[in-house]
Amino acid sequence: xxxxxxxxxxxxxxxxxxxxxxxxxxxxxxxxxxxxxxxxxxxxxxxxxxxxxxxxxxxxxxxxxxxxxxxxxxxxxxxxxxxxxxxxxxxxxxxxxxxxxxxxxxxxxxxxxxxxxxxxxxxxxxxxxxxxxxxxxxxxxxxxxxxxxxxxxxxxxxxxxxxxxxxxxxxxxxxxxxxxxxxxxxxxxxxxxxxxxxxxxxxxxxxxxxxxxxxxxxxxxxxxxxxxxxxxxxxxxxxxxxxxxxxxxxxxxxxxxxxxxxxxxxxxxxxxxxxxxxxxxxxxxxxxxxxxxxxxxxxxxxxxxxxxxxxxxxxxxxxxxxxxxxxxxxxxxxxxxxxxxxxxxxxxxxxxxxxxx
Length: 357
Ligand code: DAH
Hints:
The protein is of the alpha+beta class and 357 residues long. It has helices at 2-14, 18-29, 34-40, 47-86, 105-119, 133-136, 147-151, 176-185, 224-239, 292-297, 314-322, 335-341, and strands at residues 102-103, 123-124, 130-132, 168-170, 189-198, 209-219, 246-251, 256-269, 272-275, 280-290, 306-313, 343-344. The strands form three sheets. Strands 2, 5, 6, 7, 8, 9, 10 and 11 form an eight-stranded mixed sheet that branches. The chain has a two-stranded antiparallel sheet with strand order 1-12. The longest helix has 40 residues, at 47-86. The model has no long low-confidence stretch (mean pLDDT 92). The structure holds 3,4-dihydroxyphenylalanine. Residues 173, 175, 214, 253, 256, 286-288, 309-311 line the site of 3,4-dihydroxyphenylalanine.
């Protein structure tokens, strides 16, 4: 029995793979294995012999089985070890520049603008791109007959015959996020809301999908002066110059009173845009003091709260800052274009680290 034991223990420890181990298992403790056959012989033994041999054979069988299991585990460990050596990866290596993705100028500019307003204490808010006409129009004091609805070239979602729920639209501006944010959070509130907006329009300066950023600040004594300061700070930081003069041009939006168009002082020298100097004005967006009805529609008491809102076009700001000529190319998904105008994925825009490098 000792010979049998030594033989199998040796064979098992020499087995080079799982298949060899399985063959050994069959040979030793399988149905017709050497040890199993010996166990069958127990029947022919005398009672005394059986009392000695029975437990010994059982112990031998157990020992062989555990040797098999142990060897199997150590083979698996070795295989894993081998595989890990082959698949070893140095995660501290720098990315290969040829394969690195690029940040789209729209994303870059959205992050830049968010970083600037975050510094002033604005949080980033979001809303759905498919919204109903209450949020996109009515709540913003744009009733059904209002010309602004027609002007916006709205995309309406399909409605089944007899469906009398409020129609859904692709939002035509980011202003509905004002309503949703005030509904959720109440006042005081300070948010910006960057995002996609949609209008049925297509030419060199219009695409059916484009990007806006909405700003909203509501508190007890917020004024037009606070608004102007915020926009001046924003323009100087965004265009990375010391100072930019902001001009308010009287305008009309249903959701603000008074309303103004935002212009930044600039000059065009040899086709190059310079901010903060010159006699030209750059149109950047709209703004005003939030209309009392808009506050009311959002569950904010206009007797107690007031504040400003503004809307800027992200795509245009990106084109101007980075000298990108054709808006439509932004959305062509042409990799050559992206490699030319894109930004490194490893540089996050921050005010202290520099917005664009
Ligand atoms: N929602 C306007 C548009 O898309 C832009 C705008 C104007 C937003 C004035 C505002 C605002 O928040 O106060 O044409």
